[in-house]
Amino acid sequence: MKQKKIPMRKCTGCGEMKEKKQLVRVVKAPDLTDENGEVLQHGEISVDLTGKKPGRGAYVCRDPGCLTAARKARRLERAFSCKIPDDVYERLEQELKQE
Length: 99
Fold this sequence. Notes:
It is built from three helices and seven strands. It has a single domain (about 10-95), classed as YlxR-like (Hypothetical Cytosolic Protein, Chain: A, 2-Layer Sandwich), CATH 3.30.1230. The chain has a three-stranded antiparallel β-sheet with strand order 6-3-7. With about 100 residues, it is α+β, with helices and mostly antiparallel strands. A hairpin with a 5-residue loop joins strand 4 and strand 5. It has helices at about 65-70, 75-80, 85-95; strands at about 10, 15-20, 25-30, 30-35, 40, 45-50, 55-60.
């Protein structure tokens, strides 16, 4: 029987490739545009615990040190090309403390 492929993703904090299940996903929802293509509302940035929300995703290890490194180097902001609200970082910290 053929082995099922395990999806791998890169942590924005430490830069290591790890299994998708071992990481926490941060997602930026798609921008809301009108028929002319002008942006009406920018996509919301949130923590995606299910890994199924639509939009651009970035991943962080479940290690608080990786989150600190990603925040200090502004890697999530670079991944989404926008400012990340502090409440997103707080939500990530809470999620990491639960485990």
